[in-house]
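Lab meeting prep.
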Amino acid sequence: MKTPEKAVLFASLDKLIHHRESCDRFYFGQEFCQRLFPTAEAVRKAVAHARECNVNFTLVTPFATNAGVIRVQAAVEAAAGAPGLEVVVNDWGVLRLIHREYPTVPLALGRLLTKQKRGPQLLTIEDKLPETALDHFRRSNADVPHVREFLQAQGVVRLELDNLLQGMARAQGLPASLYHPYGYITATRLCLLAEGAKPGKNLRSIGRCSRECALYEVTLTHGDMPVPIHLRGNAQFYRKDSLPNDLDALNVTRLVYEPQIPI
């Protein structure tokens, strides 16, 4: 069995620079919010640090508005020359732009686009499902043959996957990265934690972004939910610490460790 490449995901330049454990690759950027996406200057510093540490570099990009796409393009240009450069894309417009303007840059299809079935409530019904249905819920739409052919034509060479609570199944898919211990569930452009420090703020109202997500998170629990839900900024996550035993069979060639919730 081949040992998977080890990557570490950072949303903060400070945390990347002060990371001391060995790894093969830095992931740097933001998947879920363009407001938190690093500046081009921060990307240049992250690339320089990766080069000093002799590790490869992956730029992680979010879903984006037109204004966000401009920031992403600046960041891609700032990452030029990074060792082992890859770009993770979580927006179809960003994918099209990078493939058109930077056709030699390898692309990885991000977690927001690989369309896994991530809802934790699946655990409450899995013993009632036929094996064929359960198998379906363990797969990614990106592994469907005609989807895979389309992705390869767009320069995608890798899939970014979550470690599903209900287990995983794959067949003949692209090489994959598996994120752990946090799995992404869902995200929205309407951040419910904005202005969350104000008196009287509740989770049903929308406020102005002051990056409160950098300060705190909310853990949601319910008797009908099998695991806690971690709400950080505009995204929700679950935690799963165990990894699949059959990484080779799943064509998982890289493990992406998240030291904290990635937002």
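Slide two material, second protein:
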Amino acid sequence: MAKERFSTLTYRAIESQNWEVSFDDSSIPSCWETKKCTAKACPVYGREHIRCWLIAGTYCGGEIQGQFAHKLGNCSNCEVYQEAVQHNPINEIGENFNSLMLAVKEKQDLLESVNFELKEKYAELELMHQQAREMADTDLLTGLRNHAHFQHHLRWEVSQASQKHKPLSLLMLDLRLLQVDQ
């Protein structure tokens, strides 16, 4: 029965790519009550039936705890966790499943964040590349296109005329300003 239940939960989570874990469970004792904690800045303080071992930044023994993966080893020895699983292997497997789903969700969130960052950096690089191309094709003094730009476009035009079997003409003028002495 338990095997089928966890198999179903696992397949459903994988198919839907939904790694959400329910933090509320009426069978879980409230850690702040059990431990007589008064740390009002703790993210679970005052909340009922919360899986405190899965929530980052909780207070335990007056110290702020880190991400759940870093604190889970310590939390699994805590009386709140032990009471929640009630020394029942099936309940403990269920909590391990929840922990695994939360770990997968954290990694997926991290990947999405890094992917977003990479896309932003790629867009920046593309813009910088375009600007570098513009600078390479432009004379800095006059702001006009340079000889390399002319050669590139001339090769392209010749290629297009050749592919389409069309004639191509080129007319070049050299204009110079004459300065008249007074």
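Talking points for slide two:
The chain has a mean pLDDT of 82.
The radius of gyration is 33 Å.
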